Structures are given as structure tokens and as C-alpha cells.
Write the C-alpha cells for this entry.
Amino acid sequence: MNEILKYKELEIYFQNADHVDVKTIESDVDLRRFISGMLSYYPWWMVSLYGIREILARILGLVRHEKPETLPSIKPEDLSYTPGENASFFIVRDAKEEMYWVSETPEDRHLTAFLGVTAEKLNHKRTRYHVFTSVKYLHWTGPVYFNLIRPFHHMVVWCMMKAGK
């Protein structure tokens, strides 16, 4: 977490958070390529998880997001670093080339979630990426929903990181 918070401007994403997790992985690719690989990872089983989310959305009265059948592969040069623009189903919130990239999930009434990546350069070829998730509950359904999906969340993020590597 210290490596992430060396960027003081990222502190806002952790204020009043109800859940924070950080996962770390090393790679030989640059930040754009790493994030593009993460966001382009979309195996069949992730599509199935959206089906489960639809069931939970109905039961808990959550905003029903359209279930994507496929997501476009994002090329590193097409990855947005502009706040407010979309990157896959995320919305870019803040980014600096080769330093960090932060996004937010689409607006919902039960929780707000941020996904971010910071780059810690180890040497001229190797980078350690710190991938964080920060969640703030907005309604009683937030912790219910997140605790139901939490095991899948960890698995999805880890698999996305490996795909970005």
C-alpha cells in the first residue's frame, strides 16, 4: 500500500473505503500493455459470472447492467488515460503515463468501486504492478452483494493480472 500512496493524489480513492485489497505482480511489459491485457481478458467463465450477477441484481434490487457477450480487445495505444472516458466497462478517473491508472465501475446504488494500477519500476526491464480495489458501500445491499461476490472478485482480478503480464 505504501507504494500506491506515494502518489498523494490517489489517497482520495481510499478515504472512507469499506474494503481495500491490493495484489502485486511483476512483469516485463509497460503499464499500457499491462492494463490493456487485463481489460481484454474475458474468458467464458467471466461471462457466466455476469449471469449470476443478474440473479443477484434482481434479488437485491440493484441496477441491472447489460450482460456483455464479448468485450473488445483493447490495444495499448487505444487505452484511454482521459478522466471520464470509458476503458472497457470501467470509467477512467485519473492516470499518468508509466505511473498509475485508476478507473471506476459504472454508477450503481449499492456501492462504488475503484480499480487502479500503479507501476513500481524495478530495473530497465522489470516492473512491479500494484493492483488495488477500493469499495465504498452506499446502501445496505452493498456489503451483502460484495461479500457474496468477494471470492470471485479475488479470482477475477488475479486472472486479469496474469493476462496483463
About this structure: The mean pLDDT is 90. The radius of gyration is 16 Å.
